[in-house]
């Protein structure tokens, strides 16, 4: 998105000097835990979630390599969400003072971090609006497009076939649906020839029609970054 100077790359590398491995299903951070660590996701997929009063789980976001995890540790003593590995993962933990030094020494990097936080905020706003105002089919379709598009950012050669990596229960927890309802919506999308499913893979057969059905907005496009400060 933004070409980095050698000094900026070195500053980011310092955030990734340590590594920690997680197996699928492992909890990295639990909601209301105390701690000031943040993480860079190096490999794999992580989801954030919260527990509701009735004991059900609401999945908020899916995170991919390069994403900053547990950013709420910057301002809260207790974690605001639970972070769970959806696949085998590698993360790089770092403490807040290291990020404070990065912000002081490289204000453009601080601005880029703020840009990503605004992209994430806009995407969460879309998800909130979808939960309250769109159909079950639209919500499921939007999740499929979101996962594929984030994977495509890491692998621009990725086509319409991809590994979804989510159970129907996890899709349901992200869209406010039961696993049975998710299964019904996936079958409907197949019957409408918008998607196809093969062993372990999802295929988007008509991406334009699927995007229309999902009311999907790609928040990683249409960015205006002309205001970013010059690098030091």
From TrEMBL:
Check the record and name the InterPro entries matching this protein: cNMP-bd_dom (IPR000595), cNMP-bd_dom_sf (IPR018490), Env_Response_Regulators (IPR050397), HTH_CRP (IPR012318), RmlC-like_jellyroll (IPR014710), WH-like_DNA-bd_sf (IPR036388), WH_DNA-bd_sf (IPR036390)
Q: Which UniProt keywords apply?
A: DNA-binding, Transcription, Transcription regulation
The highest taxon in the source lineage is Bacteria
Q: Name one Pfam family in it.
A: HTH_Crp_2
State the SUPFAM superfamilies in the record.
cAMP-binding domain-like, Winged helix' DNA-binding domain
Question: Which SMART domains has this protein been placed in?
Answer: cNMP, HTH_CRP
Note the PROSITE patterns from the entry: CNMP_BINDING_3, HTH_CRP_2
Q: Does the keyword Secreted apply?
A: no
Is-annotated flag, keyword Transcription? yes
Q: HTH crp-type domain: which residues?
A: 134-208
Q: Which residues form the Cyclic nucleotide-binding domain?
A: 12-103
Q: What is the protein's name according to its record? A: Crp/Fnr family transcriptional regulator
